[in-house]
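=== RUN LOG ===
request id: a7f3
mode: sequence -> structure
chains: 1
length: 1239
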Amino acid sequence: VRPGRAGAREDLALRGAGRFVLTREDDGDDEKASAEEDGYFDGALDDLGAAYRRAALAEAGWADADGEGGGEDGEDGEVEEEEKEEEGNSDLEEEEEERGRSFPFDEADLLAEYVRRLNPGVRVDVASRSTVLRLLRGGRKDRRDDEDDEDDDERVIDDSDDASDDEGDDGVSLGSDPVVVCVDRSISRQLATNDACRSRRGGRSVPFVSVETAGVYAKVFCDFGDDFVVVDEDGEGPRSTLLDRVEAIPDDNGGRTRFEVRCLEGERHDVSLGDVVEFRGESGGGAGRGDRPAGDGPSFPRCEVTHVISPTRFVVEERAEEEEEEEGRRPRPETNALLDGTARSFSRVKLPRRTSFSSLREILRPTSEAEEEEPLAQLSRCDDDALFAPSDLDKSFDPVRRRAAMASWATSDAFVRTRRTSPDPSRKSERTDVERFRSLARKLAWEDDDDDDPAPERERRDALVDRFARTCRAKFVPLQAVAGALGAQEALKAATGLYNPVRQFLLYDCDEVLLRVGSAGVEAGERSLEDCASPGMAYVLGRRATDELARSRLFLVGAGAIGCELLKNLAAMGAGGGGSGSGKGERRGGIVLTDMDTIEKSNLSRQLLFRDHDVGEFKSVASRAAALRFAPGLDIEAHTSRVGDDDDDGPFDDDFWSSGCDVVLNALDNVEARLFVDGRCVAHGLGLVDAGTLGPKGNVQVVVPGESESYGSSADPPEPNIPVCTLKNFPYEIGHTIQWARDLFDGYYRRRPRQANDRVERIARTEDMTAFARSLIDELGEDAAMDMAEELGEDLGFYSTHWDSSDPEYLSAVRKDSLVWAVRQAHLLFDKAMEELIEKHPVDSLDDDGVPFWSGTRRVPKPLRFVPMDSQDDEVSAQQVIVNERIAQFVRSAARLRVESFLDVNEAEDESTTISLDEALVALDEQAKLLRKKKKSKEILHNLSGGGSSDDNDASLALVLENLNGAKTGASFLPCLKLADFEKDDESNGHVAFVTAASNLRALSYGIPPADAMETRRVAGRIVPAMITTTGLVSGLSCLELVKLIKGLPLQSHRNAFVNLALPFFAFTTPVPAEEVEGFDGKTHTIWDRITIKHASGSSSGSNMTLRKFLGKVQKIAGCGGDVEISSLSYGPYMIYANFLHSHDEELLETNLLDVVRDAVISDEDDDDLAALSNGDDEEKESSRILTEEQNKILSKLEKKRFIDFSVAVEDEETGEEFELPPVRLVKEMDRLGTEANT
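=== RESULT ===
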C-alpha cells in the first residue's frame, strides 16, 4: 500500500464502505520478491501519490523527513488560514497524546490515518500480506506452528463463533463478506491473491478486483466467483408507463397466452426483449408479490416481453408457474384480469441475475512452474471478446491493439523480474530498455506466429509496445483518477450486487496524448526531472509540456463534487504552479476558482476536500485551503462570485476573459451557467472542458477553440414541465404529488408568513376596514381576495388573544391553535377538495368529445377523512386505520412547522415545538365531528345574499371583511411571523417529513404508489444524484482533455466522453467540427470567426465612428462588392440598423455608433424609437432619457465592455438573397490605459 494508490480507497471511503484492511509487505519476504515489487512501482514518478502524501501529512499535522506537510499556503499563505491550521494541529497533537504514540512514518499507517479523517465513521486496519492471504483462505494457525517457526511473529488465533470472521495480527478481521482490491501489483502477485480469494474455506469465492496504471495505459480485472448475483443491473427506477389497452393474441398451438400491450398516446415504453413487466390498476393493484400487499385494486399476472413491435407496442406472455414459485409469489392472478380494462399502467420488474467469472489463472493459464514465470506465454484468449469490456469504440475492438496491450502488461512484469526495475528509455547501454522490452514482448506473445503477421501490422504492434515501454515507469495523474474511480466502482458492485460488473478485463489508454512527445521520457535537450514539481507528468509528456501546463492560467468554475476532484488532480499535476522557468518577465501560472455556494453537511459524502469543520464555509475558500495541502506551491485565487450575474460581472469582466485565463474547466450544476461560460469562451477564443454527472452516468465535452462546435451548439431536449392542471387535480405519478406537496410547503410556511408580515402594518393603521376590504377585492378579484382574507385571519387572528410571547401559556396556546389549523387543512385538502372535484366531474361523466372524462392519465380521486375508532356512523376497516395514521402524520408535521412560524429562532429550536403522533390523533379525534358540522365555507356564505349580483358582491365583501376584522386586532400588536426555507439536508427540521406525509396522502387518494423520505428528498430538493466514483472518473477525463488543449493537439486527438458505470458503458467520440455557415460569394465561416474593427473611444478621431463609417468598414473588411449591401445590424436582441428603414436616414447614419446602441438598449419599441431619434423633437428625446433601474444596469455593463459583438446580414441586390456575416466585433481601445485592445 502506498499513498499514491489512495484514489480507489478515497472513493470507497466516501461511498460508505464500512471497513478497510490495508496490507503492508511482510518483514520476512524474500529479497527477490521485494525487489520485484519495488521495481514494478517507481514512487518518485507518482505525482498523485506524492500529493496525497503531502495532504495526509499536512492534515495530520506531521512533517516527513523532507520537511513536507504541515503547511497549507507555503510562504504566501494567508494569516487567517495559518491560524486555522495551527488551531487544527493543536487538536491533533492532543489526539496523539491520548493515543500515546507519534507517527512512525509507515506508508500504510499514513494512508489509514488519512482515510479515517476522510470518513471518521470508517474502520481502518493494517495487516501484513501473509496475514491477509491466510484470512482470505479461511485458515488458522496452530500453536505448534510457532514452535516450529521462530521467525514467524504471528500470534495464535483461537476459534471464533463466526468461522467466516477469522482474526489475524492485532485482531484484524476481514469480516464475513470481504472484497479484495489489488492496486498496481505484479501479475504474479495478482495471481497469488486471486488464488487465495478462490480458495476461500467453504467454497465461497471472495470478489477480486485488480487495478493497474502504467504511463498512459490502464487495466482493470474483475473476478467475482462462479455464482455472483447482480441484484440490479442499471440502478434505474422502473418507469411507470400509462397503458391504453391490452389485447389477447390467439394461439392455435395451445401455448401460453400472449397479449399485445399498447401505450397511451404520447407515452413510450422502456422495455426490452426478455424483460418482466408488472401491471397496475386504479388503486395501485399489482401482481400481489409475497413481500408486500397488492393494495385494494385488482391484481394482475406478471408477464415476460417476447417481442417489441414499436416504441409504443410490445407483446408479452404469462410467466411459467415454476418461475413464479421461485420468487415466493402468491397464487397467480387470472390472466383475464388484463383484458377487462382495469389495468392502467405497467412497469419493468427487476429480477436478480446470476453470472459466473473465470479466475485470473484460468484466463492466463500458466500450467507449469516454467509458465508461472511467464504467465502470458499463451495469449489465445486475447481474441475472446467475452472477456473484454469495451471502453473505447475506436480502440477496444482493434485486435492488434488489444493483443499488444496485454503483451505489454505481461512484458512489464517479466522485465521487472529479470532486471529488478521498470524500463527506462534514458538508460545508456548497448541496447536501450525500449529495445529490450520490445524483444521480450515478441518472445512472449508473437514468437510462434511472428512471420504470419503482415508487415504493417507488425510495425503498428511494435509501435504500441514501444509506446508502453517509454511511459510505463511513471504514473499519469489523469489516468490514475480514471482507473481509481473504475476500480472503486467495481469493488462497490462486488459488495452490493448493484450494477453490472466489468466482464472481465477493461483496457483503457490515452496514448493520443503522446503526440509531439520525444522518443524518451525526457525529451532531447530538456532538463532533468530532479527539480520538477511533477516529475511523473514530465516523464510522460515531456518537460516542455509540463512547464506549459504549470504556466497556464486555468479558470475552474464550481467547487462542488466535480470541482473538488478537478482541483485535487490539478494540484497533483502541477497545473498553475508557475512553471520551472525563471526568465525575466516569464508568465506565472495559476488557478482561478469561484463558487458562490457554502458547504452543507450532505456535501461531505461526495466532496473529498471538505471536512466537518468546513460546514458553512464557502466552497471555494475551503477547497483552496485543502488543495494547498496537496501542493503548497500552488497559486490559487478563490472567489465567491457568481459567473454570469445579470447585475454585475464582478471580477469576471472582459479583461479577465481576454487575458486572465487560458482554459476554462466547468464543474457546474445548471445549464444556464454552462451556456454563459460557453458563450464567453467562444467570444474570447478560449478552450473549455465541461463535465457533468447524474448518478453513475457522466459526460465530458471539450470545446477546442477555432475547431470544434461549442457547448451551446447542440442542446438536450428540455425537461417537460408538469402542467398546472395535472398538479392541482389530475396527478398520475409520484413526482406530481411530491411537487404538489413541495409547493404546499412554500405556500404554508413561506408565502403566507411573508404575506402577513408585508400587510400587518397597513392593516394595523387602517381605520376603515370596509374600504380596505373593497380595495383588496378591486386589486385581486373576489376569489383571491377571499382566500387572502381567510389566510390573514388565520395567521394574524391568533395574536388577538395571545399577543405576549413571554406568557407561560403562550407556547401551549400556539401548539393547540396549530393542531386545530393542521386538522382543518387535512380536511380541506384530502376530503373536501376531492369531493368537490368528483361532484364537478362525476365518475361516469364524459368530456366534450364524448370520451369518458376519467380516462387516460386522469385518475378518480378517493376522498380521505379521519374516522374516529369509536365512530358509530362509519366502519373502521384496516384500510381506514392506515388512512387515519397517514392523516395523523400529516397533521403532526404540519402543526410542528406552524408552531415554529409563531416562535422566534431560539424558541423554535426547543424540543417543545415537536408534536407527537398521539397528540395529532387526539386532535383529529376531537375535531372530526366539529369539522363535519362546520358550514362556513365560501360557497355557503356566498349564497346568504339570495343570489342577486349586487347582493353577491355584498356577500363577498362581508366574507372578506369578517376575516379581516379577525386579523385587525392581532395586527395591532405588529407581530412578525417566521419564514421557513425548505432545507432538504436537515432531517431534524421536519421539512422533508411534511412533504413526504402530504405527498403520500395525495398519492393514496389517487391510487399512486407512495415514495419514501429519501426519494421525496431527492425529488423535492431537486437533488442531482452524485457518486464520488462518477465524479472521479469525469474529472480524470477532463484533466486529460486539458492536457491536450495545453499541448495544442489536433481535433482528432480530443475525445468527448459519455459513460455509464452501472452498465458499464463507455463511448468516446471525436468532437464535432464547428458548423460552417455559408456566406455570400461562396465564403463560409464558423462561430469562431470574427470581423474586428477598432474604435478609440477616448480620442477625438474615435468619436467620429458613426454608424455610416462603421457600415462602410464592415463592407470593406468583409469584401462585399458593389452589388452587396448591409441589410441589417443587430446588437443582441436590439435592432440597430435596417436598410429598408434607415438607408436614407442621414441623421441616424451620422450618429455615433455607441450612442445608437445605447438608445436601442433603453428603448421599448426598437424601430419606433430609432425613427424618433431623427424625427422626434428635443423635448421628447430628453424625456426618454429618464431611465429605469434595469436600463441603467444594462448601460453600465455596456460601458464596461471592452468590445461589442454585432450580428450583420448582407443582401445580394441582384438575387435578393441574404447572408449572415461572421460576428462583427467593435473593440473599444482604452486610450487612458495607454494600451490597445487585443484583437
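=== NOTES ===
The CA atoms of residues 223 and 359 lie 6 Å apart.
The longest helix spans residues 734-765.
=== END ===
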